[in-house]
């Protein structure tokens, strides 16, 4: 962390901070899309899954608190997730905003995020929902492979294969299957995570900032649809 949580966010040139929430079931492609939007909009991609996995790898205090949950594919306690995001949003690179990926995952987290942002006179400007039918999710996830060096480099054995079998195009490192993408863990993950996700969707529908986008189209089309949704959210907001 580069600043303490009490210093408050840094706003850029008086412009409104853009806090964008990405919603999608595991396997909907929201991580890939969040990464693309991050590049297009110049905002940091804040993935709680990635923050937790790196905490587990680094064996720090947060890692010790979340390890069992992450490995079992269940949600870590709301207060831990909220604290991690609060700290992350106080880092300097999030001054102009951030793209939240994987947070909020429950209604409680969504309410906590609203409260956290309201303290700095901010709000979620758009909740982008990448929508994919449940039956397509299992097929997508069991074929997913990630780079052993950076797990944001994501492939699929059928739909997005690497140039060389089993090797990351970017790092040249071997690919692996995430522990929580193994079929048994996956089934539990979907069961546990879909119900709270629908509550989060309802929360943002109630706030009038929900923008659903079809996730069952080529990745470039999904990105364009998300950018259009953001432009619409700015016209409305
Ligand atoms: P993901 O990479 O987003 O699929 O997240 C991987 C794992 O991290 C999840 O299965 C959960 O165990 C944990 N996780 C990530 N984000 C959250 C969150 N907002 N709330 C609770 N647990 C989370």
Describe the structure in your own words.
The protein is of the alpha/beta class and 237 residues long. Helices cover 47% and strands 15% of the residues. The strands form 2 sheets. Strands 2-3-1-4-8 form a 5-stranded parallel β-sheet, with helices on both faces. A 3-stranded antiparallel β-sheet has the order 6-5-7. The protein is globular and about 45 Å long.
Bound molecules: adenosine monophosphate
β-strand percent reads 15-25%
Mean pLDDT: 90
One letter per element, helices H and strands E, the order comes to EHEHHHEHEHEEEHEH
- Count helical runs: 8
Main sheet overview: 5 strands, parallel
Number of strands: 8
Radius of gyration (CA) equals 17 Å
**Cross-sheet strand order for the largest sheet:** 2-3-1-4-8
Structural class: alpha/beta
The first-to-last residue Cα distance is: 31 Å
Task: Name the shape in a single word.
Answer: globular
| Residues in helix, % | 40-55%
* Poorly predicted segments: 1-12
């Amino acid at each position: 962390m580069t600043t303490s949580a009490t210093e408050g966010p840094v706003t850029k040139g008086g412009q409104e901070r853009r806090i964008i929430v990405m919603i999608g079931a595991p396997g909907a492609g929201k991580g890939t899309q969040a990464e693309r939007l991050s590049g297009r909009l110049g905002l940091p991609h804040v993935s709680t899954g990635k923050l937790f996995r790196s905490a587990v790898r680094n064996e720090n205090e947060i890692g010790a608190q979340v390890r069992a949950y992450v490995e079992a594919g269940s949600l870590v306690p709301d207060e831990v997730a909220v604290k991690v995001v609060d700290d992350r949003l106080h880092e300097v690179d999030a001054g102009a905003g951030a793209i939240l990926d994987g947070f909020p995952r429950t209604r409680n987290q969504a309410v906590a995020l609203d409260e956290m942002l309201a303290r700095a006179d901010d709000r979620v400007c758009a909740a982008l929902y990448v929508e994919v039918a449940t039956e397509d999710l299992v097929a997508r996830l069991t074929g997913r492979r990630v780079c052993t060096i950076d797990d944001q480099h994501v492939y699929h054995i059928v739909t997005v294969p690497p140039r060389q079998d089993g090797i990351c195009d970017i790092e040249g490192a071997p690919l692996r299957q995430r522990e929580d993408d193994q079929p048994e863990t996956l089934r539990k993950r979907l069961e546990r995570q879909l119900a709270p996700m629908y509550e989060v969707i309802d929360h943002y529908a109630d706030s009038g900032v929900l923008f659903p986008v079809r996730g069952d189209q080529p990745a470039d089309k999904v990105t364009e649809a998300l950018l259009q949704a953001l432009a619409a959210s700015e016209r409305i907001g």
